[in-house]
Description:
A: three-stranded antiparallel sheet, 8 helices, B: 15 helices
Amino acid sequence: MTGSGILQGLAETAKNFVGSFTHPAENLATIEYPEQRQKLAENTRQFPFLVFDGTDPEAGLRCVACQICEKECPPQCIYIIKSKAKKPDFVGKPQFFPAVFDIDLSVCMSCQICVEVCPFDAIKMDQDFELATSDRFQGLLFHKDRLAKPNSHFQKIHPTEAGETDTRRAADLEKAQAAAAKAAAAAAASAKPVATPANSPEAKNPPPASPAAGTPPM
Amino acid sequence: MSYPGAPAISFQPRYAPDGTEQDGELLEVSLGPQHPSTHGVFRMDATLDGEKVVRLKPVFGYLHRNHEKIAEGASYLAAMPYTDRLDYFCSLTSNWAYALTVEKLAGLAVPERAEYLRVITAELTRIQNHACVCGFLLQDMGALGTPLMYAFRERERVLDLFESLTGARMMCNYLRFGGCRCDAPAGWLDAVRGVVAEFPRFLDEFEALLSNNEILLARTQGIGAVSAAQAINGGLTGPLLRAAGINYDLRKVDRYGIYDRFEFRIPLGEHGDVFDRYMIRVLEIRESLKILEQALKTIPDGPIIDPKAKLRGFRPKAGEAYGRLESPKGELGFYLISDGGPNPYRYRIRPPSFINLTLLEDMCLGRPLADVVVILGSIDIVMGEVDR
C-alpha cells in the first residue's frame, strides 16, 4: 500500500518521542550541560600540563628542560628556555629546569606525543576544557606558572597512570638512595684511615631529600 | 520580469524535450562552498538547461592545508596525529593505514592483541561512519534532523568508547608503528560488547524508519547510477564500487591484519544507484557487527606493541612502501619513500573520497538539480580527505 512505509517510519518516531518522556534514561542522549556534567573517562585528554611534586611549583617541577617534547611536538607549540643554574631533582641529582616553558594552546592539537616522549613523567594531559577566553593571543598562551599543576591533580584525573608513575618513581628514588648510601659508606670507609669522617665531603653530604621523598600520593 | 531596465535573462530551457533549440539559455549555478548541502567547503559549478544538469564542475581546495608536505618535514611519528585530520570521521582507519605503511617500510611486526584492537577500533569506526553517512544522505533528501540525530545518538556511544580507549573522541591518534599506544582500560571490552549487542536494535529502528519509505525510494532508486565498467574505469572503491556489483573489498582481497580469521560477507549491489549505496552501507554495518562479535570473543592477552619499535629517533631504512586498507569510504592508501632519514622523503596519500568524487559529473548529467545534492550525499565525501 502506498504510504505504508511512511506510516511505519512515523510509528518509529512516535515511539521515540513518547519514549523520551516515559523512559528518559534510555531515550535521551543529551544532558543539560552547564548544570549537569558528564563524568569524563579516565583517559580523556585535552591539553598538556606540567607536573610538580610537593607544594612548591618552582622547586618540585619535574621538567628538566631536556626539550625533547619541544622537538617532537608536531605543530611546534612548545617553547622552552633552559635555565643557567641547576636544582636537585627528586633523587637529588642536579638538573636544569625550564626558565621559560610556554605552550600555545591555540596551536596545540592535543595529540599527546609530548607525554609519550617525556622520559621524566613531567608533562601530562589535563582534562580541563573550559578555557574559552576573549583574549585571543595571550589568553591561550600558557606560561609555566599556569601550566604547573601538583601531582595530586594528576592523581585525581588519571589515577591508574599516576599510580604507575608514582610506583616507578618511588622505586627510582629507593634505588638512588641505596646507591647514594653505598657510595657514602664506601667513601667513609676509604676516608677513615686518613682523616676523621666528619671532614670527608662525601660523608657530610647525604642525598638531599626531595619534596616528594616518602610523601604518599595525595 | 518586465520592468524598465530588467536584465535580459530567460529561464526557459535552451532545448525543448524533442531536442530542438529554442529561445532559452543555459544557467550557471554555483553550489557552495557555503551551501548547506555540500558537505563541507565543496563547490560545484553546475550548468543547467532548465532544471537539468548539462555540465558540472567540482571545485575544491578550500580546505587544503598542505598535509603531505607537512608530513614530509615532520618525523614519522609526528605525522600520525595529522592523519587523524584526513578523514575526521574515521581517524582510526587513517591511523591504521599510515601505521600499516610504515610497518611495511620498517619491517615491524604487530603483536596479536594489537591486531585485534586495530580490527575492533576499525570496525567501530566503520559502523559509526556508515550510520552517519546514511543520516547525512537522508538529510540531503530533506529528512531534516530525525534520521541524522538518530544516527548521531548511536555514534555518541561509539565515540564514548573511543574516548575511554584513546583519550579523544575524534582525533584519536591511537596507533603506533608496531602496535597500539595503550592497552584497553579495564572494562572497555565489556563496554564494546554492550554497544555491539545494542546496535542491531538501532539498525532495525533505522530501517523501519526509512528503508520502505516511498519518498526515499522515489528519490534514490535509479538516481546517479554508475555501471560496473564505469566504476572500474573511474577508480571507484568502497561502497560505491560494491553498489555497482563489483566484489572488491580489501579486507578480503589483501587480508591485511588478521581479517582472514573472521567470517563475514561482502554485500553487493546491482544497479549502482543511490539506493544501492545506502543499502550497502546498512548491510555493511551488520557485517561489521559480526566481525566485532568474533573479535571480541577471541581477543587474546599479551603485549600491545612490538618491543623493537622505537618512539623517538625512528629511522626506517631507505626504500619505499605502499600500504592500503579498506577505510569506510574505500581504498585508503599511503605511499612512502624513505631515504633513511627521520622524516619521509615522499609522503603521498590515495584518498578514497577524492577519487570517488571524480565520477560526480557522470552521475549527475541529465538529472535535475535536486538530485545532484542526493548524489553528492551518497558519495560520502569528507573534505579533510579530499583537499588534504
